[in-house]
From TrEMBL:
Residues 30-259 form the Luciferase-like domain. This is LLM class F420-dependent oxidoreductase. Pfam families: Bac_luciferase (PF00296). PANTHER family: CONSERVED PROTEIN (PTHR30137:SF18), LUCIFERASE-LIKE MONOOXYGENASE (PTHR30137). One of its GO terms (cellular component) is cytosol. InterPro entries: Bact_Lucif_Oxidored, Lucif-like_OxRdatse_MSMEG_4141, Luciferase-like_dom, Luciferase-like_sf. It comes from the Bacteria.
Amino acid sequence: MTDSAKAAHIQRFGRYGVWGWFGRFSPEESRQIEELGYGTIWLGGSPRHLGPIRKVLDATENITVATGIVNIWNTDAAAIADEFHELDQDFPGRFYLGIGAGHPEATAEYTKPYEAVGQYLDVLDEKEVPRERRVLAALGPKMLRLSADRALGAHPYLTTPAHTAIARDTLGEGVLLAPEHKVVLGTDAEAARAVGRPPVDQPYLHLRNYTSNLKRLGWTDDDIANGGSDALIDALVVHGDAASIRERVEAHRTAGADHVAIQVLGDGSPIDQLAAIISAGV
């Protein structure tokens, strides 16, 4: 694939996307996200099948839809490849397949994730899922390099702009770097932490792939313990008014990200918060 063709795939994600669990967004909310100008809807939660994605694609016209991520341990690569092709036939060029190795604590079969992801990609190759339509969950250097070699790029989760800078150095240029970042719209720090701390603590501060990455970034055991220090939670869950959140999210792009997937935390529809964030000045 030429550099210009790869760049076109990267540009299709847009500067900002919206991240939510499978089933998080109704068809109407999906349409509203597209109308607001976000480039991608990311759907997470390690689904066994891609069926729920069809509802989002049906409800929208052009927005990119990606998994963040399909877990290789609970899905069959050949079956996922067949589902990819079905979606691509019905919605040409709009769906990108994000895959990853999940968490060792959650998967009894979890062994040698780097090799297992490679084997999963081998099947996707055999089933002709294009490399430029694949994205890998990646935090550490080996998986980041694999995402550059065998996919369009990387989708790091629960990271900071400091990690984004390291990831860009590892990936090199011309490779998609699309980190996720959690946000809470509100200027009351204690209230924002009350919303942001629980979904960070459980499960992520008890999963060693995430805690190891945080330690590589300089966070300590004390920061990670007891639900996370205020400083750690504030770094992983941006809070403030819409303009300050937009500025903090934009720091990922300054550090080298092509695209940032914004996950709004809290109950209720995220549409008003997403509208305020994308319309705020930087």
